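Hi again,

Forgot to attach this to my earlier email, sorry! This is the prediction with nicotinamide-adenine-dinucleotide bound. I've pasted everything inline since the attachment limit keeps bouncing my files.
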Amino acid sequence: MAYNLLKGKRGIITGALDSNSIAWKVAEKAHEEGASFVLTNAPIAMRMGEINALAEKTNSKIVPADATSVEELTHLFNQSQEILGGKIDFVLHSIGMSVNIRKKIGYPELNYDYYAKGVDVSAMSLHKMLSVAYQLDALNEHASVVALTYAAAQRTYPFYTDMADIKALLESIARSFGYHYGIKKKVRVNTVSQSPTKTTAGTGIKGFGDFFDYADAISPLGNASAEDCANYCVTLFSDLTKMVTMQNLFHDGGYSTTGVSDLMMKKAGITE
Ligand SMILES: NC(=O)c1ccc[n+]([C@@H]2O[C@H](COP(=O)([O-])OP(=O)(O)OC[C@H]3O[C@@H](n4cnc5c(N)ncnc54)[C@H](O)[C@@H]3O)[C@@H](O)[C@H]2O)c1
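Structure tokens for the complex follow:
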């Protein structure tokens, strides 16, 4: 069911790689809610070609941009305003990549070149996007920027290795830039801390399947799906949440505030 929550709004959606991507679902929902937007991803992801089907389905244009390149991000924001016919009302940062995770390198032995790459792609890219938008004055008053994060920023998950540190930085950037952009133009910046979700980035993490089941058993509502996450992002892009900024918002079925669940105790064989 659609509510026209984003009618007339213009957006930029990063990170739709395939139909499992959280960003893919956000694009579908934003389209249903009346938004027009530009889709973007790293040029290398474009070559896989699946994003074209999403662009067709949502009647949107694609502007490739490597999120680590200020030059490409500047082109993205300029082009998007031209294509959409005005300043931007919402931005989704849905970008994550760790070479250390891909190569299954444990936390105590992290490779620092890979670590730096992960920081640049997955966290500093949010600062770069916001800084480019700020300097171009590309966002409308009350525009909403949402970046996706994970609870390893607050608590330790050994297999999440450098991404735990990187997500902590991402959340800090959202708070710090949220202050400056709020003062300048009432732009709000938030992070959404999402349940484990079966996507390319998610399933690349060692032991992901087991961890997915563990989180599901702990969360009173169960794991939040990518579709649920998309619905939440749409509310954050809408005017209904225009005073929410500089927050890390847990979207996890209650996982982050549950100490223990009956189901988990049973599964662990502690209680019958
Ligand atoms: N899947 C999960 O369990 C989960 C849980 C919480 C948060 N998240 C976060 O959600 C976000 C989206 O991930 P996803 O799970 O949908 O996986 P995904 O693999 O579908 O999306 C990750 C995206 O990042 C893009 N990307 C990588 N390098 C880039 C670059 N240099 N420039 C531009 N884009 C680049 C990829 O092309 C891809 O589209 C990430 O920030 C991830 O950390 C995922």
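The chain has a mean pLDDT of 96. The chain has one domain: 10-206+225-259.

That should be everything now.

G.
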